[in-house]
Amino acid sequence: MAALPRRIIKETQRLMQEPVPGISAVPSETNARYFHVIVTGPEDSPFEGGLFKLELFLPEDYPMSAPKVRFITKIYHPNIDRLGRICLDILKDKWSPALQIRTVLLSIQALLSAPNPDDPLANDVAELWKVNESEAIRNAKEWTRRYAMDN
Amino acid sequence: MEQFESLLTCCVCLDRYRNPKLLPCQHSFCMEPCMDGLVDYVRRQVKCPECRAEHRIPYQGVQGFPTNVTLQRFLELHANIAGELPDPTAGQVMERCNVCSEKAYCAPCAHCDKKVCEDCKSAHMEVLRREISRINNQIRRGLNRLQDILGVVERNTTNLQTNCGAVAGEVDEIHKRLAKALKDRTDFLRNEVDRYLATELRNLTNLKDNLELELGNIQSNCDLADKYMNDDVEWEDTELVDTKEIFLKTVEFLRNFDYEAGDYNRRVRFIMTHDPNQLVMHVASYGELNITQPNAYSSGIQQNQGLTRSKSDHRLATQFRQQEEAKGWQENDEPILGGRKFGERRPPPPEKHTRDYGAADDYSGYESEHRPTRSRFRSRFVKSHLDNDSDTEQPSRTVKAEQQKEKEKVTDTEDATRGPLSGIFRLSDCPRVMQRILDVDSGKKKEKKEPPPPPKPVQPTPQARRPPPAQRQQSEDDEISRLKRQNKGAASSQEPERAPARPAQEEERNSINRKPPTPAREASSDGESDDESVGSLQRNQRKTAPAAQKPATTPRRPSATEAPAPHRPAARAPSTESSASTESSGSAVKHTGAILSIAELMEKYSPGSTSPTPRSRFSSAGNERTAPAATNGTTGGAQRVQSRFVGSQRPTPAPAPAEPAHEDSDTSSEEETDSSEESDEEPVTQRKPESQAMARSDIGPLLARSTNARNDAADNKPKETPATQSRYRTRQTSQTEEEPAPRYSAGSSYSNRYGSKPREEEPPSSIDDESKYPTARSRYLALKERRNRLARSKSSHTGFGAGDDDDQDDPVSPTTASPSAYLAARYGSGTGGTELSRSRSSHALKSRESSPERPTPGAEKDGAALSSWARYLKNKYGSRGKDRDPSSTSSSTSRRLSLGLPLRSANELASSDDDSKNAAGSPISPTAATAAVAGFAAAGSSPRSQYMQKRRLQFSVGSRGSEPGCFTWPRGIAVGPDNTMVVADSSNHRVQVFDSNGIFVKEFGQYGSGEGEFDCLAGVAVNRIGQYIIADRYNHRIQVFDPQGRFLRAFGSQGTGDGKFNYPWGITTDALGFIYVCDKENHRVQNQKLHFFHMIIEQSPFFVEHRKKCL
């Protein structure tokens, strides 16, 4: 259990000191590499008004490898599957050490406002999104209201 | 400013750029670890985190990317503007942590002595902290031991005081009693005297008065008679008659009155019932303080030492232990922190690490040389160590003293409180610790997480870490181990003390062993010789005077006698020594004697008696003259001295007298004739022309013997032998010092050949005179002695049988003196034969052998007294000697002797071979002997060269296998009396015999448990008569085979009782035939005479099983 790299400490401090609007990331008390994240649904999106919980884990070789991020709150989104796994390029092959937690979360927030059904993870959702976008958006709103708005 | 800041921040590490490298895409990143982490080693590419552009990595790696100099300037600028402190890690290069193998800025860790990253280091320090607390607990727990010891010490102190007080009281009491007794007695005696005086006085005065009265009466009567008893006065007849009666009575009274002068003349004498001197001595030493082991504490130690010592019979073992102890010592000796100051780093490895602490510099210089004065702790026992250390350390210390004055001050503070026993000092006295504690208390320092000073005050470590870790870091191993040790051992403190004590003791032992002999000898020789010399001289003179010998001879004798006595005590077995000494001395005397004139002798003689050197001279001189007489006497005396064996010899002398006659007739050389004359003379005692004396001295031993025999009869010369001995002694001492046994033997052998010359050549004798001076003499004498000894040994065998042999031998002895003499001796008839004959006895190893040998000569004459061994020898040599008798003077015999002697000396046990060897040797002997002698005489190093040769591989025998000449697990080897090699071929269950060239001779034995069968035999030994003694390991018995390999007997069985074995292994036998067995699995030490086997060894009736613990 090597001590935290300087970068993680710095990022954490900065997240605390200058929180990104609509995003809160709090490190776990027991594990500084594990963050409890809450992202608000972007405006003008079917997820508006929802508070989405995510978990974010910084792997050992962070920042050389991407953080692991997963939605805990259920969400109806073509790029997010039932288990909350996110299909986002910067979390995969497009990861760059220049990216940070904050940028990742911003990207995820952006992903909410701009679903990309061409690169689906939840095929059924993506299918519906492509075929019947309004229906899909309605479902999304419904899910948001059902899962992301109570707490 | 914010943006400016961000421009200077590496986007990967989010830190200020450190050694920014510029990618072709114009993005910059720190070289380490950022750029390093971006490398795709498979494709040798770097992907820019910013623009995701991929770039090939230069050949040299990421280092090959250009440094963004502009950015660096900006960084510097920014640093200047913002007044930032320089990056502490600037200039450092990242290394792999030696613990977690992560790349990081590593610093040396005192805990693991590696360079580790911060994280690991902190972890280590955590560990150290925990360990410290743990050990501290142990210490607290173990502290009571120290307290117990303290209590014990205090108790012991009081005990000691009471004890000493009691003893002092006793002493006082005794003193009072003694004083009172003395006083009482004194008073009583005085009173007696007074009373006696009074009574006597009274009586005397009475008598005086009476006498006066009588005198007056008579006087008046006389006057009256003169005056009136004439015709003038008329007296009546009755008156006249009465007057006449009165006068008659007066006359009668005057005639008869006899004053009993005796009554009043008797003197009062004060007579002590005890010798006053003795009484004084008794009183003067009326008590001793016997210091017993004071208390359990120390006694335990001593006992331990004793135990360990008792086991340490083996020298090797002791040596080994010494070494180990020495090692242990040195280890233990290390000062607590390895000589460092508290909290100071270990002497830094070559690399430079910056230290956080400012004080570091002060301490950096410190190294082991700074060890504060050693703890006294083991000082007592380790003194030598300490001294050495201090010696070595001192210079360096002094050298550095100037440089380090400041530092020394610091250490001094620590030293001041250093525990004298363990070298532990108070942490709270350590400046660093104090400062650190201060910081903590005042809390003004940034919250360094220094734990409140652990049980022991914490040291300020340079890096804001807790001091205790620092301590441990430095010496953790040392300290912990030390602490443990102390916990264990401190209480008893036995370990340290014991270890040191042993070496010291051992040293003492050694010293004792070494020293005592020489001083003892010297002292004995000096003191005894002096005393004895005087006494002996007087006696000799008295005796000799009647003998009508020349005074010169007598003095010489005494000196000789004196000398021998001291020698005996010195170190040798009395019988052998004495005999040897007498013989050698006799021989020596012969040599030396030749040179000196009688007058010289006389001169020397007087001083010689008093001082040792003169004595030696004297002896030498005396040897010349006295030699004839003295030698005779000496031989006789020697024989007497020799007791058992001598006794055997004595009988020989009887024949000897007859022999001398032969000698005379036979003697080709003047000496011999002289000797013979002397021998003849000696009975007469007065005849000794100086020349004869000289000759005698040379001839010495044999003649001496014969003469002795005569002398014995005459009783005149017994003391002369001692004189010869004295010489001998001197030689012995010299020999012991200088010459190895082998040499000696060789020398002796050759000496015989050349013997005749020595007399003629006076250089030897002169040398003898010189011999007084230790160096020249010692060697020379030593050579002589050896030769003499050899000669003697020979003579004893051969010579005794025939007087002729003796004559031959005699020449030999002189030869020993001078190398050239040897040659002459060879061809000339030996004068020094006696020396040769006796020479054997001198061999230390041969003491036993010699004793048996001597008897042999005697044995011929009286077989009854002979031991079995003697008989054996007799059988061997007796016939020879007889044969020789007729041809006694023949040079061949002398040669034989010469050869045989060396051979014998070479192989102690080989005596049995003498015959064969002598025979063989005689042809060869001249050349070889001469060469050897020459070498010997010239360099005196021949033994050494021989020894050096021993290191070379002569040959090797065998290989693995079961054929003859091959071995499977050979476990034992022995050399037989005939130079055969006997090998215990363990796993082939047989004994193989090879000749001295390694050629297979025979084998015997096979697997089994019956007679003559072995089960993995281990040890083998060959006794003097060629019997094989085999340790039959798995049969738990010892088997004895005759020289032909036929089974003779076996003894022993498995068990732990006496005479039982448990896997006997090593085995050997000594000259007397005692068998020594390593009883391997019986881990006990036994040494006992178990059986009395007549049969085992013909010559020696004894059998001893010596159990030893196999180490």
TrEMBL record, chain A:
<dbReference type="InterPro" id="IPR016135">
    <property type="entry name" value="UBQ-conjugating_enzyme/RWD"/>
</dbReference>
<dbReference type="InterPro" id="IPR023313">
    <property type="entry name" value="UBQ-conjugating_AS"/>
</dbReference>
<keyword id="KW-0547">Nucleotide-binding</keyword>
<dbReference type="GO" id="GO:0016740">
    <property type="term" value="F:transferase activity"/>
</dbReference>
<dbReference type="InterPro" id="IPR050113">
    <property type="entry name" value="Ub_conjugating_enzyme"/>
</dbReference>
<dbReference type="InterPro" id="IPR000608">
    <property type="entry name" value="UBC"/>
</dbReference>
<dbReference type="GO" id="GO:0016567">
    <property type="term" value="P:protein ubiquitination"/>
</dbReference>
<dbReference type="GO" id="GO:0031372">
    <property type="term" value="C:UBC13-MMS2 complex"/>
</dbReference>
<feature type="active site" description="Glycyl thioester intermediate">
    <location>
        <position position="87"/>
    </location>
</feature>
<keyword id="KW-0067">ATP-binding</keyword>
<feature type="domain" description="UBC core">
    <location>
        <begin position="3"/>
        <end position="149"/>
    </location>
</feature>
<keyword id="KW-0833">Ubl conjugation pathway</keyword>
<dbReference type="GO" id="GO:0005524">
    <property type="term" value="F:ATP binding"/>
</dbReference>
<comment type="similarity">
    <text>Belongs to the ubiquitin-conjugating enzyme family.</text>
</comment>
<protein>
    <recommendedName>
        <fullName>UBC core domain-containing protein</fullName>
    </recommendedName>
</protein>
<keyword id="KW-0808">Transferase</keyword>
<dbReference type="Pfam" id="PF00179">
    <property type="entry name" value="UQ_con"/>
</dbReference>
From TrEMBL, chain B:
<keyword id="KW-0479">Metal-binding</keyword>
<feature type="region of interest" description="Disordered">
    <location>
        <begin position="322"/>
        <end position="902"/>
    </location>
</feature>
<dbReference type="InterPro" id="IPR011042">
    <property type="entry name" value="6-blade_b-propeller_TolB-like"/>
</dbReference>
<feature type="domain" description="RING-type">
    <location>
        <begin position="10"/>
        <end position="52"/>
    </location>
</feature>
<feature type="compositionally biased region" description="Low complexity">
    <location>
        <begin position="571"/>
        <end position="588"/>
    </location>
</feature>
<feature type="repeat" description="NHL">
    <location>
        <begin position="1001"/>
        <end position="1044"/>
    </location>
</feature>
<feature type="compositionally biased region" description="Polar residues">
    <location>
        <begin position="640"/>
        <end position="650"/>
    </location>
</feature>
<dbReference type="Pfam" id="PF01436">
    <property type="entry name" value="NHL"/>
</dbReference>
<feature type="compositionally biased region" description="Basic residues">
    <location>
        <begin position="786"/>
        <end position="795"/>
    </location>
</feature>
<feature type="coiled-coil region">
    <location>
        <begin position="179"/>
        <end position="221"/>
    </location>
</feature>
<feature type="compositionally biased region" description="Low complexity">
    <location>
        <begin position="606"/>
        <end position="633"/>
    </location>
</feature>
<dbReference type="GO" id="GO:0043161">
    <property type="term" value="P:proteasome-mediated ubiquitin-dependent protein catabolic process"/>
</dbReference>
<feature type="compositionally biased region" description="Low complexity">
    <location>
        <begin position="543"/>
        <end position="558"/>
    </location>
</feature>
<dbReference type="GO" id="GO:0008270">
    <property type="term" value="F:zinc ion binding"/>
</dbReference>
<feature type="repeat" description="NHL">
    <location>
        <begin position="1051"/>
        <end position="1086"/>
    </location>
</feature>
<dbReference type="InterPro" id="IPR013083">
    <property type="entry name" value="Znf_RING/FYVE/PHD"/>
</dbReference>
<dbReference type="GO" id="GO:0061630">
    <property type="term" value="F:ubiquitin protein ligase activity"/>
</dbReference>
<dbReference type="InterPro" id="IPR050952">
    <property type="entry name" value="TRIM-NHL_E3_ligases"/>
</dbReference>
<keyword id="KW-0862">Zinc</keyword>
<feature type="compositionally biased region" description="Basic residues">
    <location>
        <begin position="373"/>
        <end position="383"/>
    </location>
</feature>
<feature type="compositionally biased region" description="Basic and acidic residues">
    <location>
        <begin position="495"/>
        <end position="511"/>
    </location>
</feature>
<feature type="repeat" description="NHL">
    <location>
        <begin position="954"/>
        <end position="997"/>
    </location>
</feature>
